[in-house]
Amino acid sequence: RAVHYARRVMSTSEAGGPVEQKIFAKLTSELNPSFLDIENESYKHNVPKGSESHFKVCVVSSTFEGMPLIKRHRTVNSILAEELKEEIHAMSILAKTPSQWEKTPELGSTPNCLGGSKA
């Protein structure tokens, strides 16, 4: 079964930066998703151009069947533990089962950064 990746085909040389590629590879390998969308939202934050520090991930997988939402998020966080520790500053997660995605196939949006701890 092919993964529907909403942003781009990851096999090309234009497959996003190295952190995005790691996210894709790990989530695909561990969760066998039917839908995966990874958006680098770093541009919405006060970070250098080209940064890969803020992501929004939508992953649809039958692995999530019977799991409460908190366990789904913990599963994704566990898979990406190394990246979260060293490279990713923030990650928004939408984790759904295939039947949930069929009912509401929406990614939603995240707001621009308001500056966090800036004085």
Describe the structure.
The protein contains 4 helices and 4 strands; from the N terminus they run βαββααβα. The chain has helices at 18-31, 69-79, 81-86, 98-103; strands spanning 4-5, 35-40, 54-60, 90-96. Strands 1-2-3-4 form a 4-stranded mixed beta sheet. The radius of gyration is 14 Å and the shape is globular.
Taking all residues together, what is the mean pLDDT? 83
SSE pattern, N- to C-terminal: EHEEHHEH
How many DSSP helices?
Answer: 4
The low-confidence parts are 7-14
Q: Beta fraction of the residues?
A: 15-25%
- Specify the helix fraction band: 25-40%
The end-to-end distance, rounded to whole angstroms, is: 50 Å
Strand order of the largest sheet: 1-2-3-4
Could you give the count of β-strands? 4
Q: Rough shape?
A: globular
Largest sheet: 4 strands, mixed
Structural class: alpha/beta
Radius of gyration: 14 Å
